[in-house]
Design a protein that fits this description.
Oligomer: single chain
Radius of gyration: 20 Å
Largest sheet: 7 strands, mixed
Helix content: 25-40%
Strand content: 25-35%
Distance between the termini: 6 Å
Structural class: alpha/beta
């Protein structure tokens, strides 16, 4: 069967190519994608080939997908034809996925919301590592998709007040929509404002921009004995850290919260497997504990993927939740 998928042939070059979908066997499942979600921060960085991203091209991008089971291998036990499923999939009209990598989607959860499940899980592992207690103040630097999800999860975990910090007024409006307690710009007297709102500095500061220059700011905003969680994948280096005054004397705990630092098989307090966090993300969405509908800003046909990525290349601050719709893309057998 012939299908279509997004490919980056070189930095800044996005195409949609035809490809041959192999036959399923064993525990494999053939799924027809309905929607896939672009991860704007990571995918923009990789497409631009920023520091700490893969150097080789072509690349086949993708983070989150939702679709329908078309066919199952002879050893598949968990799914059948017609089941609606979510997976950490590439941007493609079809995919072959091992059954252990699929999750069932709650029946009352729309595709447009379910497709956020993996980004929620990425933010969630950072929140778990922060060990937020009820009533602890939380400041999140960066109100992109990951930051906005982290803000909601911090509030759900008992953080109070929860504060969004971003240079973009557009992004701060999104933060208001998802119910944060305060929004601040870093170009105001940020240290004084954070200290005032938190009575001495934030208990937890979550860096979600990926900008290395935001890390020294995170250290300054944290209170004595506070925690700084590096959730954003940092693109580059910084040398402007006063470690003695801003880290050492304050007794800060600094946690690297990359999504890859997870247990493989069994969840434990503060460290859940990716599958368990992703399954929880779908349940939280179905229970209306997390808002993602206000974060959907654009929707393109999968065949129009280059237009979607143009928004990222131009650094359009109004572009957050960008969906690729594969449901109407026609495919054919060879």
């Amino acid at each position: 069967m012939k299908s279509y998928r997004v490919v980056w042939t070189e930095p800044k070059v996005v195409k949609v190519e035809e490809w041959e979908v192999p036959e399923v066997s064993g525990r494999q499942v053939l799924v027809r994608t309905r929607l896939s979600l672009i991860s704007p921060g990571t995918e923009r960085a990789w497409l631009l080939h920023l520091p700490n991203t893969p150097a080789t091209f072509p690349q086949y991008p993708g983070y989150c997908a939702v679709g329908e089971v078309l066919e199952v291998g002879e050893q598949v036990k968990q799914f059948k034809k017609g089941d609606r499923v979510a997976w950490a999939g590439r941007h493609a009209a079809h995919a072959i996925v091992n059954e252990d990598a699929l999750l069932p989607v709650p029946s009352d959860l729309p595709d447009e919301e379910a497709v956020f499940f993996r980004l929620i899980a990425i933010a969630l592992q950072g929140i778990r590592k922060a060990r937020i207690e009820l009533g602890e103040s939380v400041a999140v630097l960066g109100a992109g998709l990951i930051g906005l999800l982290a803000l909601q999860l911090a509030k759900l975990s008992g953080g109070f007040p929860v504060i969004a910090v971003d240079l973009s007024e557009v992004r701060l409006k999104f933060a208001h929509e998802v119910g944060v307690d305060f929004v601040l710009r870093p170009d105001e007297d940020l240290n004084a404002r954070i200290s005032e709102l938190t009575e001495g500095g934030a208990h937890v500061v979550i860096e979600a921009t990926g900008n290395p220059e935001a890390i020294p700011l995170a250290f300054k905003l944290a209170r004595r004995m506070g925690r700084v969680i590096l959730l954003g994948s940092t693109r580059g280096e910084t040398k402007s850290v006063d470690f003695y005054n801003d880290v050492h004397r304050k007794g800060l705990l600094i946690v690297g919260a990359h999504d890859s630092v997870r247990p493989q098989f069994n969840s434990a307090p503060g460290f859940w497997t990716a599958r368990d966090d992703q399954a929880l993300a779908l349940k939280l969405l179905a229970a209306h504990r997390i808002k993602v509908a206000p974060l959907i800003t654009h929707k393109f046909s999968g065949m129009e993927a280059p237009k979607a990525y143009d928004l990222l290349l131009s650094n359009d601050m109004s572009a957050l939740g960008i969906l690729l719709d594969w449901s109407s893309v026609e495919t054919h057998t060879a």
